[in-house]
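debug: dumping io for the single-chain case to check the tokenizer round-trip. Nothing else runs in this session.
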Amino acid sequence: MSIPTVNPQAGGYAVDALALANQRPAANFVKQPLHRSTSSIIKRLIDILGAIVGLIITAIVAIPIGIITKITNPGPIFYSQIRCGINGKPFRIWKFRSMVVNAEQIKHLVKNQAQGHIFKAVDDPRITPIGKFLRRTSLDEFPQFWNVFKGEMSLVGTRPPTPDEVIHYAPHHWERLKVKPGMTGEWQVNGRSSIKDFETIVKMDVDYQRKWSVVYDLMLIFKTIWVVLNKSGAC
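debug: decoded output
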């Protein structure tokens, strides 16, 4: 079995995409048909419309966020990281930076409070003061509307994992990657950061695939807005 290599770089990870594709569980997985949502024209049109509106809002909030970030924690305004999308395909995700500049280099100093192939830490000391506000309001996620516009993500889907999480996946974990990664989904509206068991997240993602419809996507979008406004489960 070929083991994918994951090398830390400034701003995120670099993953050997070919090695990732050759990993045995992944090779078996990609032979399976993708979820029907991936070929839905209506879902894609909703994504494009939502991304355009989201990018307009992102452009507006980027000015005050950028000024405050530069003053309180000098460094880049945006943060990028390699994530794994549909079928484990790597892509670069974008966020407003909510952590200190060297967050990835000192990640090993923070205790992982989640179970399984996911990293979560309550009161992560790497988060900046403005970063706490961005995360509570989910404003840090707004640059991902660009990923949605490009078709790498959807408004609704599954949380996009990092390559160092995916290389440890068991075969059944790959089921969650049969849909495009989303800015929101079952996990975000049903607990967000309060859910720290990876197997529970996988179950939610697979359950989303079973229940999927355009109407269900719209319901999750509106529910996400409600959850964010009430700051439910935010870290």
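debug: round-trip ok. The chain is about 40% helix and 10% strand.
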